[in-house]
Write the structure tokens for this entry.
Amino acid sequence: MKYALIFLIFAAVAFLLYWRLRPYIRGVRRFLGVLREVRGMGAGVPPRASGPDARRTTSGQPVEKLTRCANCGTWVPTSRAVARAYCSHACLERAAP
């Protein structure tokens, strides 16, 4: 009985501590997510647009998948890509033989 009471007190203190630190923990997680994205951009990896932790716009819509331009390497939304592989008509013309 004595151990159960000690465990209950410890659990209550841990819960209260977590409850008070929750906003700071969330902020640290967001900061680490930003660092992960920046590191991925430096390595040329496009941002993830699907999956359980998919990024969303402010309206709640999922972020559109990106396509890399075959000529200049710029990432553009798939709906804006020209001929499914280029960021603009200028890049498409420059890539033509």
Summary: The chain has a mean pLDDT of 84.
